[in-house]
Amino acid sequence: MFRIRRLVATIATTVVVAAGIAVAGPSSGASAAVTPLGVDISWPQCGSQVPTDQAFGIVGVNESLGNTTNPCLAEQLAWSAKSVGGSAQPKTQLYALFANPGLKASVWPTSNRYQGTVPTNPFGKCVTKGGKKQVTLACSFMYGYARGYDDVQSRGVPNPSAYRWWIDVETGLSYQRDTAQNRAAMQGMIVGLKTAGIKRIGLYSTGSQWKTIAGTVKSNSPLYGRSNWIALGRSTVTKARKACSGTPLPGGTIAMVQVEVPYGSGTIDRNVSCT
Description:
The protein is an alpha/beta fold and 275 residues long. The protein contains five helices and eleven strands. The strands form two sheets. It has an eight-stranded mixed β-barrel, surrounded by four helices. It has a three-stranded mixed β-sheet with strand order 1-2-4, covered by helices on one side.
């Protein structure tokens, strides 16, 4: 979410929530009762001030890497649960980082087995060759599977199947130059999430970042036709609303548009519901 950054904001009224985040608000001109906007936060907002006027909240389960946990996840889930409503979006949603570092990964798969499960791998068997790990479609699938499965089972989200999950796809994270490898890893991530009980899975990206990472997606791909959460970067809520009728990711429907807007002395991500 272009989120290799930290939010810095100064608001007059502040209430500290546990040790993880502080809430501030309501912020002027952003009341969900007037304009039902969502807010998304994650590890960069640990210890920072966040609004209390969000219609819905979207919380990242990872820290800066796909195999890590957001240290403020519990506090941020509690914050999101207090969303004021006012839109068609669920009050709490989650997102998980896509990654495909290849052999730079701290643990790269060497088989089709993970945590006692052997998912059906559409790309065949992930194996070593001459005792060396291989970056193949089958192994990329298994890497994505492990990340999706762990995001549900190991991050500490209570009742994870109750939420809609988004896969965060952006160039600030690790990916392979071969887009087929990335599509295989994304497909594995979807299967991992599903195996762990998640039923509602969407995709977060921009058109250009998606093209760079995923390339061409065929209509028979599990990536095709999913709900979209589209990012605009620093812009305006008005432009975000117009982007609801923009070009979606392959075969998809734009459900939300994210925009980075001024907040206090810094910025924060606001989200427009397109449904």
